[in-house]
Design goal:
Elements (H helix, E strand, L loop, with lengths): L20 H4 L5 H21 L2 H8 L4 H30 L1 H24 L20 H30 L5 H32 L2 H21 L13 H14 L60 H19 L1 H19 L1 E2 L1 E2 L3 E2 L7 H26 L5 H32 L10 E4 L4 H25 L5 H29 L12 H29 L5 E2 L4 E2 L1
Parallel strand pairs: 1-4
Antiparallel strand pairs: 2-3, 5-6
Helix pairs in contact: 2-6, 2-7, 2-8, 3-4, 4-5, 4-6, 4-11, 4-15, 5-6, 5-8, 6-15, 7-8, 7-12, 7-14, 10-16, 11-13, 11-15, 12-14, 13-14, 13-16, 14-15
Organism: Gossypium gossypioides (Mexican cotton)
Subcellular location: Membrane
Pfam family, one: PTR2
């Protein structure tokens, strides 16, 4: 009778030494035209409704400004958490191409529902009576349709944005080309968002919400068509099962072999590559050294053909190091949560501040309140291009070394803290103007202060974003195991999503404990909120410095591409 054994398994989360023909015949820079076109359409559509969501809720669904801000923060959080789910599905089951295509189609359905909420009077409450503080709240049905449309549109936007980043990076081979791609990915996202946050928002505010949402639908439809047109050029990644399975196997195998004594000899461990030149050295004093037990060979672990016979009791040393790499990155990743939280609060509250300020540009034109956020997008887009083409190359020529990704992220931390300090001082000026004109008790009163006052803080936020966002995406993409590449690019989105939820909770906590954030912000103390964010940001920066120092010390090997000068 034949002996029954556990299925043999070749680890899926290790990059093969050579790529198959099907991977090398496709890809290249030609695919980036299709991906850039798709990304532009997706962002035009997504930010066309998202950027003006607070105003839509206040003016069309009679929500209070702070409540509308909280709803918008939750929506932002969902949009930035969903890429992780999309990445898991892409890496495990469908691949990046199919996830991006399906997500774009889902967002089309969401746009149809949003058009209906704007077009049909039965799907929204009647407007507030002029000169009256009484406003009728939406009915349960109206809320259901509204939230269903927002949820569907959010799911489509969240599932496609960072999946396109992974698909685009997979078309290129050189690390330097991929680093440049991430910079221009960020630039394309911002440039598209600028157009939607100005032109489309202006249509929604000045002409018709339904027409604005219809433009968003058309942009989404064109994006999907362009994406499908480039299918024959893409180098598509093949899903290899859940990438987390390999990481979990390391933990399980290490626990099962917890009584096995560790060895310092490389030959006592299982290596994915048997050639002497490719054998990974054993980490003698690395983080979580006990995980090495998962790769130690014991009797019955390896079959006669040299493959793993018991995959939940033996892993390769390469898989162990993959898990160790992920664990090392978690502290740096977590520092990004409170880096983004102040920006999340600022981007939402700036819209409510703009609603209470003089937004006239000349005698006939009034800047839409939601378009104020375009200042951040213009600033970050301009400085991403400036840094990529001038500042970073100049720095490398002067110093002989490139500015590392960790250094870029750290500079971003400092600049974001500076922007919060500027915000606090500008808000103090706004509140003094309100007090001098005795407007505290007048809800909806326009403060005799130009909206330009809040531009400097938004410009500085954009500069900070230009440093840390591309740096984080590139860091995770290059450091994560190959099988987690989609998840790696979505890690920044996960940080942003969590940050929006943290910002929502923080604002709600301050509302409950203090009187700083009433429904009428003209009688509040937003400046105190900003000073709290300055303090928290400074502490978070110190935490980042500790994490970055430990990561640099513990990293086994600094990844430098000799041809490109890429440095982590």
């Amino acid at each position: 009778m034949a002996k029954t054994t556990e299925p043999k398994l070749v680890p899926a989360d290790i990059e093969a030494p050579e790529m198959p023909d099907s991977m090398t015949k496709k890809g290249g820079f030609i695919t980036l035209f299709f991906i850039a076109g798709t990304l532009s359409g997706v962002m035009l559509s997504g930010f066309g409704w998202l950027a003006n969501l607070i105003v839509y809720l206040v003016q069309e669904f009679n929500e209070e400004s702070i409540n509308a801000t909280q709803i918008a923060n939750v929506v932002h959080g969902c949009i930035n958490l969903l890429p992780i789910l999309g990445a898991i599905i892409a890496d495990s089951f469908l691949g990046s191409f199919h996830v991006a295509a399906i997500s774009s189609f889902i967002s089309l359905l969401g746009m149809i529902l949003l058009i209906l909420t704007a077009k049909l009077s039965s799907l929204k409450p009647p407007p507030c009576e002029i000169g009256s503080s009484f406003c009728r709240a939406p009915s349960k049905l109206q809320y259901v349709v509204l939230y269903l449309s927002i949820t569907t549109a959010s799911a489509g936007l969240g599932g496609s944005r960072y999946t396109l980043a992974t698909l685009g990076a997979n078309q290129l081979d050189k690390p330097k080309d991929k680093e440049t791609f991430f910079n221009w990915f960020f630039f394309t996202v911002n440039a598209s968002s600028i157009i939607s946050s100005t032109a489309i928002v202006y249509v929604e505010d000045s002409i018709s919400w339904a027409l604005g949402y219809t433009i968003c639908f058309a942009a989404n439809f064109i994006a999907l068509a362009v994406f499908l047109a480039g299918q024959r050029f893409y180098r598509c990644d093949k899903p290899q099962g859940s990438p987390f399975t390999g990481l979990l196997r390391v933990v399980v195998a290490a626990v099962r072999k917890r009584k096995v004594l560790l060895s310092s000899r490389s030959e006592d461990y299982y290596h994915e590559h048997c050639e002497t030149s490719k054998v990974m050295p054993v980490t003698a004093n690395g983080w979580f050294r006990f995980l090495n037990r998962a790769a130690m060979k014991t009797e019955g672990d390896i079959d006669s053909d040299g493959l793993i016979a018991r995959p939940w009791k033996l892993c390769s040393l390469e898989q162990v190091e993959n898990l160790r790499t992920v664990i090392r990155l978690v502290p740096i990743w977590s520092s990004g949560i409170f880096l983004i939280t102040p920006v999340a609060i600022q981007s939402s509250i700036a819209v409510t501040q703009a609603l209470s300020m003089d937004r006239h540009l000349g005698s006939n034109f009034k800047i839409p309140a939601a378009s104020i956020i375009v200042v951040i997008l213009v600033s970050s887009s301009f400085f991403v291009a400036l840094f990529d083409r001038f500042v970073f190359p100049t720095w490398q020529k002067l110093t002989g070394r490139p500015l590392t990704l960790l250094q870029r992220i750290g500079i971003g931390h400092v600049i974001i803290v500076l922007s919060m300090a500027i915000s606090a001082m500008v808000e103090s000026k706004r509140l003094k103007t309100i007090h001098d004109n005795k407007l505290e008790a007048l809800p909806g009163a326009i403060v005799p202060m130009q909206v330009w006052w809040i531009f400097p803080q938004l410009v500085v936020i954009g500069i900070g974003d230009a440093f840390h966002f591309p740096g984080q995406i590139a860091l995770y993409y290059h450091e994560f195991p190959a099988s987690l590449r989609s998840i790696a690019t979505a890690m920044v989105s996960l940080v942003v999503g969590i940050a929006f939820y943290v910002s929502t909770a923080l604002v709600e906590l301050i509302r409950r404990l203090t009187g700083w954030l009433p429904g009428n912000i003209n009688s509040g103390r937003l400046d105190n909120l900003y000073w709290i964010l300055v303090t928290a940001g400074a502490l978070n920066f110190m935490y980042f410095l500790v994490c970055a120092k430990l990561y640099k010390c513990r990293n086994i090997e600094k990844e430098v591409d000799a041809n490109s000068g890429f440095d982590i």
